[in-house]
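Reopening closed ticket. The problem is back. First fold of the pair:
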Amino acid sequence: MPVHSTTRNISNLIAVGIAMALLGTSGCTPQAQSESSTTINASPNTDFQTVTMVENLEHPWGMAWLPDGDLLITERPGGLRIVRDGVLDPNPIPGVPKVLAQSQGGLLDIAVHPRFEENRLVYFTYSDGTISANRTHIARATFDGSTLSNWEVIFQVSQTKPRGQHFGSRLLWLPDGTLLVSIGDGGNPPIQLEGEFIRQQAQNLSSHLGKVIRINEDGSIPADNPFANNPQATPEVWSYGHRNIQGLALDPTTNQVWATEHGARGGDEVNLLEAGANYGWPLATHSREYSGGLISPETSLPGMVDPKVIWTPSIAPSGLTVYTGTQFPQWQGNLFAGGLVSQDIRRIEVERSGSVIKEVSISIGQRVRDVRQGPDGLIYVLTDASNGQLIRLEPTFR
């Protein structure tokens, strides 16, 4: 049963200032001015109510539904939890190996195989290694309803990096059965790799850092990847020039892939992703150094794709879904992007061409880590806290 229900007063949802984010958890800090390419509006307070379904989650990060309606939730320190009939099982699911749970690292995203009823496979991203040498891993395991078994690493990032920043880690199945995975750029200065700031790896096609990769279900490389025949590139790369994507979603109506990406100090982005495209980081960016200086004098460059939305001050985006359900017919086709620092969800109306029409803030009042549409057509939210919650958005009148 739900823990708590309350109808939000949406007219008071737009914050004038956004609180300072902790660098180790959000990767973003705010600036004093707004560069958002859309006007943020209020929403009528009669559209929906928020219902707290589950509490006592330890820094939850990702969620995925099983065909029977049960919900799997990852906890960044390394726990895998299951919610059955709206009730959180008090015991974590066994079978998850030890992960590097420091700073932004740990057990991160989760995705259920599209043919789960046949193969029982569940996929995970997590950080592995030590604080001085770590990388993002992708693994899959068999879930029998109570326990994980046959844990298998099917991909790991090509280079190790120090510290606990920028693992990326969102998973997204495409209609052709291949899997997209976001990989962060490795972290902020002064972190270096090969004699330069590690963030420069986002422009290096022979590196996985700062990329979205595309793999087959077993970790092998699709033959039609955009750089599969480029000897100067690692063939898993699907798009590049990214800082740290923590929101990744497919619009099944248009087959468009959307991403939300952390900037540094300001310059968070919403991007419409295409195979082979360069999204600019760190050569073209609206972000600034945490010290306040320019990262690059360029905000747009030829041959690089500009973002659809820019958030300055940062909202620290994490979690993204494209709404296709019938519970909120007025929201069909809208993007829902969570904000860690802004502690809200941004509902973004887009045209089929990808042009952004309007942006609306839905206050949650907690750090939003993930946003998903459930199989019931309702919208589910995970909050990032030591006592994290699973919250559901429901129509006010059902």
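Second fold of the pair, where the issue appears:
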Amino acid sequence: MRSVSLATKHRNPILVDLTEQVSARTTIPQDNHPALRSGFAGFPPNPRWNLTKYRAWKVGCQWRSALTKGEMVVRSTDSMLVVAAGQDQSATVQQVLIS
């Protein structure tokens, strides 16, 4: 079996449903999407989670906070969580996809 480091492995963003009405694109692996949803919903982290699940939860919390602050919005056309217009999108969109 060949080992591939995460730094060299290219991952395409995939769609994740954060709630029934909100979705987002992310490179977070599907195994960690429940933790991402949990953070977005405002639930506390599970103490048994590994580091990657905790990071996914933290990203969910950050997205919820950005949505509350108006830094991100839910696009009405497709219910996608995106960076709010007027923000520096080059840096912020990259953060959203990679986080």
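Update: turned out to be a display glitch only; the data is intact. The first helix runs from residue 33 to 41. Confidence is low (pLDDT under 50) at residues 1-8, 88-99. Please close again.
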